[in-house]
Amino acid sequence: MNNKNNKNSPSEKVYNFIINKIKSKEWHPNSKIMTENELCQELNVSRVAVRQAMEKLVALGLLKKKQGAGTFVTNIEASTYMNSLMPIFLLDDKDMLSLLEFRIYFEYGNVRMFMENHDKEDIEKLEYYYNEMKNNVNDIEKFYIADFNFHNTIALGTKNPIVIKISEILIEVLKNHQSILYKSIGPNIGLEYHQDILKAIKANDGKIAAMFMRRHIEAAINEYKKAKIIPK
């Protein structure tokens, strides 16, 4: 109940306004943003609400204050995207490629760990999400949500809190770029390899399941490179 109220609060209104300005590139890195008074007038909110939102964005590393000069958009480096506090919507093509390359090793290891720690319910969830993918190949959002949940179920099945936390961050990044991924990669690769991964897991063959996971991510990377014309 409180979360719902916070989303509609004046402070959240200011926060979302600034986030959208940065996301749309209207306020680019190192540029000076509107003053507190200007934000108050533009959004019809109090100075307290503006300050609360700006303090939150400064704490997140998206804004920085310079005494006597004003507030500026931070020049965010790619390495900061994996900060669990950082809003994760600013990835460019090279950053997305780096993320996909990281997943080769991360998700390969997850499958091996999953095989040692999963339970029957985890398998049932994987089957459910795979079927959701099959049933929603023409619905971008539903297809990729099911895809993300399939991978996150494997992470949860490892029962390793660090793996689970990293997976949550990765999923949030990918959710923010699902339309880019869909247009670049499409559903066919996901359906083919998820079927193979699930089949191997059900056969209790962790080595083969991990191999298919690795091939899945590698195939996705190749398609992404082709679509985005990124040098190999």
UniProtKB/TrEMBL annotation:
GO terms for MF: DNA binding; DNA-binding transcription factor activity
InterPro entries assigned: GntR_C, TF_FadR/GntR_C, Tscrpt_reg_HTH_GntR, WH-like_DNA-bd_sf, WH_DNA-bd_sf
Keyword annotations from UniProtKB, A to Z: DNA-binding, Transcription, Transcription regulation
Pfam families linked: FCD, GntR
Domain HTH gntR-type: start-end pairs: 8-76
UniProt xrefs under SUPFAM superfamilies: GntR ligand-binding domain-like, Winged helix' DNA-binding domain
Name assigned to this protein: HTH-type transcriptional regulator LutR
